[in-house]
Specification:
The structure holds 2 protein chains of 2 kinds. By secondary structure, chain A is of the alpha+beta class. Chain A contains 2 helices and 7 strands. In chain A, strands 2-4-5-7-6 form a 5-stranded mixed beta barrel. In chain A, a hairpin with a 2-residue loop joins β6 and β7. Chain B is of the alpha+beta class. Chain B has 5 domains: 185 residues, no CATH class; 175 residues, no CATH class; 118 residues, no CATH class; 121 residues, no CATH class; 107 residues, no CATH class. In chain B, strands 5, 6, 7, 13, 14, 15 and 16 form a 7-stranded antiparallel β-sheet that branches. In chain B, strands 20, 21, 22, 23, 24 and 25 form a 6-stranded antiparallel β-sheet that branches. The chains are: A alpha+beta, B alpha+beta. At the A-B interface, α1, β1, β2, β6 and β7 of A face α15 of B.
Amino acid sequence: MKKSSIIGIAVIAIAIVIIISSAGDASSYVTFGEAQELAEQGRKSEIHVIGELKKDTEGHVVGISPSADKTSVQFMMVDDNGKEQAVFLNDPMPQDLIRSEKVVVVGAYKNDMFVASKVLLKCPSKYEEKALYEEKAL
Amino acid sequence: MIHTGIGNTGHLFVIISFVTSLLAAFAYFKASNAGEMGNQPWIKFARYTFYAHTVAVVSVFVILFLIIKNNYFEYHYAWSHSSTTLPLNYMIASFWEGQEGSFLLWLFWHAMLGLVIIRTNKKWEAPVMTVFAVVQAFLASMILGTVFGDVKLGSSPFMLLRDVLVYDTVFLINPDFIPPEGTGLNPLLQNYWMVIHPPTLFLGFATTLVPFSYCIAGLWRRDFKDWVRPALPWAIFSAVTLGVGILMGGYWAYETLNFGGYWNWDPVENAVYVPWLILVAAMHTMITFKKSATALKTSIILVIATFILILYSTFLTRSGILGDTSVHSFTDLGLSGQLLIYLLFFVVVSIFLSVKVWKEIPSSEHEASTFSREFWIFIGALTLVLMAFQVLVPTSYPVINEIGQLFGLDFNLAPPANQIESYSSKQRWFALAIALLSGTGQFFFWNKMDKEKLVKALTLPIVFALLISAIIFVIAKIYNPVYILILTAGVYSIVANATILTGLLKSKSYKLSGGSVAHIGIAMMLIGIMFSEGYSKAISTNTLIISNEWSEEDNSTNLPLFLNEPKQMDRYEIVYRNELVKSADIPGFIRKSLLDDTQDAFYKIVKQPIMKDGELLADKGDTIYMTNPENTYYQIDYKDLFNGKTFSLYPRIQRNPSMGEVSSPDIRRQWNRDIYSYVSVSPEVEEDIDWGEKEEIKLKVGSRFYVNDYVADLKGLERVDEVNFLDLGPNDVAVKATIYIYGEDNTRYLAEPLYIIKDKNVGKQPDVVRELASKITLEEIDPNSGSVTLGLNATQKDFVIIKALEKPHINVLWIGTLVMVAGFLIALRRRYLEFMKMRDKGLG
């Protein structure tokens, strides 16, 4: 066999290994229902859930409660299927949480609680909604 | 008054820059097709158009900066990125905080590079500048902000605030309203690195266009070989600039964020790392081509891929597609369609041009021998490509999901939950291979090799490398087999390259030493990363349970420190001393408890005279200005128990309106490690303190009492005429008690509670001494007996919880970086001189 063929085969092999191993590491976007099923099946790997904060009829965010020492926060989230779920984040509350229009939580179920290790927030684009006088946090 | 003129002028210049770039592209295209060179008509016209374009771009740049500098908050860009309180250097940083500003920066660098090319290379000017001008047209269109029919092209930085916030009631009432203050620059970005990191990075981005343009020009003219000579020095320059730009970002993260490292494998970081690797691969194959006329096709593919990947990374970070995966991509300006067209245009043009002429591109007939440098450099380049591919795949998940949806497939791929581990565990194997190849490859590069010679050449370096790394891993106690391999490979690369370097220096070929120097730098970086990341460990160990909600690991690696109570950590005795702030009016830090708030967060009133070395810096009652009132520093004193040496670290908490509470580390740099410490839980803000039950005592002036177990003296009572935040009328009375409290180390603290009668109502203003966790209220004054009643409250003592990490041998990484840069510069000089020599012979 020619050397170039050997190299070619090796490269393709490595590329396939890369793709397979990356796919193995990939997390997935699921709903809370699916996440709970996964947890019940005993899978502990972290997954992504996309949703919004729970809001009352007037559109006010409800169900955010920071812990007494402010080191962690718990909030209510509604996923794309409309399922409500309490999420616990072991970090101080991200300031933009209330303003966010979309929330992605990365984590896993522990009993009935979804414990997030990371929260990504998507805030309204600056052209849509940014009041002239935002309350400064100072 | 609204300054509409300046914005309209700016917008006009944007339009001019767009139109001139189109004109220049057309004229250069004509010139190129006519094979023009020098001062022929099309080329002359094109050149002047490009000059006009440059003038327009520079004008836009200057105008936008003036809008920011003059605080014209009627403009959305100034309002949303700057504020009156920003010093000049951060106004510069706010210029490129936004998308429009960073596009402008990019346009600016391209324009400058275009001028350099026009000056230095007449032979290639026409085709190269055609590509430049087309790219400029695309970029200018991104900030055009003009509507054509239904399509809005680009987002202009010169939008008036009232045109952006059309529905805001303020503007419905008064269209000429100008906000007095902007929303300011994100305090996290108020850092010197943010002044120079973006320009460096964008210069890196911009310079990738040069080799690409030469390559396209070569294919277009069917001059397949000669483009490499002028392109090579640019490729090297681009690789070093982009590399330095990326590392600056990492260094900023290390100093400012608190994830404990310099690299987070965030999609935004990956998006520039991937093209950099490909660019480095391209640079290597171009060098082989220059030496032995092989690898031309590979070079063409890699040079094109570099530029396309830069466009791809622009698309990823600016289109909003990363929204669910990255914490810090730009805000979506609705440019995704335009960005996609920009990307696809160059993909299609490059593929079309390459395919058209592919068969005509010369390639060597025989296969490279396993003992040739071409073979090994090719393997090295291939490794870099695979290394990049491994990062590219997971970073592209959002794109893959989107494409899947087009075909009705739901891939549902989310980025790895543990990003750092997922990437590092794979990248390290590639890095290991690179170290081995860069060591061995050098022997092939400089000598003709066969089996015998190879064994002879490699024996000594291998023996030395094994010996040295054995010593290191015994001393440093490295038992992890993967790390042992990485260390050995790194040391081998250093030894092998040093051997080559010695040879070169002996023969006085200094100017050829770039490669070996750069490789030594890379190997040092690898070793530095292995130590500082692999052996980073928490030294703030603790056996107390801080919070039941915390994991065991968090509980055992965070150390609570009560004010003035020493604790032992690692080889230090550490004490939390003070909560500090910084003012523009006073050098150094100021104790926060010495200052009183005013209505304006930027101004504080001095409560007690501030002295330093016997000099009065601010007197009681003075108002001082805070540049960054959101910053609080926590002084932690360290005393080395081995040698008694002391130092202080000042980790920072930033109460940042857009990011929440952000903790930044302070780093103690030692020769063999960094001590990286940050505040993981800061003291509670005043309003949230639980003061417990109030104890009331009755006493006379001059008597002694105890508050929170500290000795205190009631020194006196006096009537005061002025009180902060209150206007006292002629019938109002305010009385102040002066109380001294003595803390642990015999520091005297002053408490001055007030008793106020205003409009016949009684008001009490207690005074809090945070350091002693005490609050004293003047409850009652009995003029008959001359005694007063004090209300005393105590609370938990002030504390911080810190986390401290040891980062061993991180200096090897930073020194390695500098060595690598030096190597690049040596190589750059050599290739540039070669190009100049050939050009002056008329070979361009």
